[in-house]
Each structure stands twice: as C-alpha cells, then as structure tokens.
Amino acid sequence: EEGIEEPDILVREIRGDIVHARIKFRLLNPQRLEDARNRVLKEVLKVLSATNK
User: Fold this and answer.
1) What is the model's pTM?
2) What's the confidence (pLDDT) of residue 16?
3) Structural domain tally of the chain?
C-alpha cells in the first residue's frame, strides 16, 4: 500500500446512470500505477452503489 494516497472522490452530479466524479490521487511510485487504478475503480464502484440505493 505504500506510495499511494487514498483516492479523493467527489461525486459532483448524478443524472440517471451518469455520474460525474472527480478523482484525485497522487502516485509516489509509478510502478504502482495498476494498483492505484484498481483502487480508484473500487472506490468509484463503492460510490456508485451507495448512490443507486
């Protein structure tokens, strides 16, 4: 987990199935890009499932 800060996700607008989210994360170690991308996708899925309830 080292080298990756928690993704900062802000859901800005929801229209039906369209969710505009701003995702900020800083990579301190470029080799971990895939891990960071997977983490961000997981966070986005969490937000989507929370807003669809």
Assistant:
1) 0.37
2) 47
3) 1
